[in-house]
């Protein structure tokens, strides 16, 4: 039983030592000083920024992304279910109907709140 813990401890030490070794090696080989000040200046796509660099984005962009992710998860769950549909039986069918109803309620809520309006 103690050998099992020793194996786990060895893997834990290896998991800790590899990232630390990589960071230490990177610290040894990185350049210590920058000769060119231009390298340290921020830029956007190779063009110098003009004006204010912090721009506020509408929350709707993030809401679109969240709704998209919700329906991506739906397809990830629906595909294997559809492949094995004949083998699963009535219980799996009812569970998937409940899952789809929950997603439909989420879609209707997002629609009601205006999360799908693009303006």
UniProtKB/TrEMBL annotation:
The keyword Amino-acid biosynthesis does not apply. One of its GO terms (molecular function) is NADH dehydrogenase (ubiquinone) activity. It is a multi-pass membrane protein. It catalyses: a quinone + NADH + 5 H(+)(in) = a quinol + NAD(+) + 4 H(+)(out). Gene3D superfamilies: NADH:ubiquinone/plastoquinone oxidoreductase, chain 3. Its EC number is 7.1.1.-. The keyword Cell membrane applies. The chain crosses the membrane at residues 6-29, 61-82, 88-111. Pfam families: Oxidored_q4. GO terms for cellular component: NADH dehydrogenase complex; plasma membrane. It is found in: Cell membrane; Membrane. Keywords: Cell membrane, Membrane, NAD, Quinone, Translocase, Transmembrane, Transmembrane helix, Transport. NDH-1 is composed of 14 different subunits. Subunits NuoA, H, J, K, L, M, N constitute the membrane sector of the complex. Belongs to the complex I subunit 3 family. NDH-1 shuttles electrons from NADH, via FMN and iron-sulfur (Fe-S) centers, to quinones in the respiratory chain. The immediate electron acceptor for the enzyme in this species is believed to be a menaquinone. Couples the redox reaction to proton translocation (for every two electrons transferred, four hydrogen ions are translocated across the cytoplasmic membrane), and thus conserves the redox energy in a proton gradient. This is NADH-quinone oxidoreductase subunit A. The gene is nuoA.
């Amino acid at each position: 039983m103690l050998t099992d813990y020793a194996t786990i401890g060895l893997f834990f030490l290896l998991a800790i030592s590899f990232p630390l070794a990589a960071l230490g090696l990177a610290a040894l080989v990185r350049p210590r000083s920058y000769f060119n000040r231009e390298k340290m200046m921020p830029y956007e796509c190779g063009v110098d920024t003009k004006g204010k660099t912090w721009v506020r984005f509408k929350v709707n962009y993030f809401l679109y992304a969240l709704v998209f992710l919700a329906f991506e998860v739906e397809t990830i769950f629906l595909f294997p279910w559809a492949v094995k549909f004949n083998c699963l039986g009535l219980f799996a069918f009812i569970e998937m109907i409940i899952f789809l109803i929950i997603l439909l309620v989420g879609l209707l809520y997002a629609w009601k709140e205006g999360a799908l309006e693009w303006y």
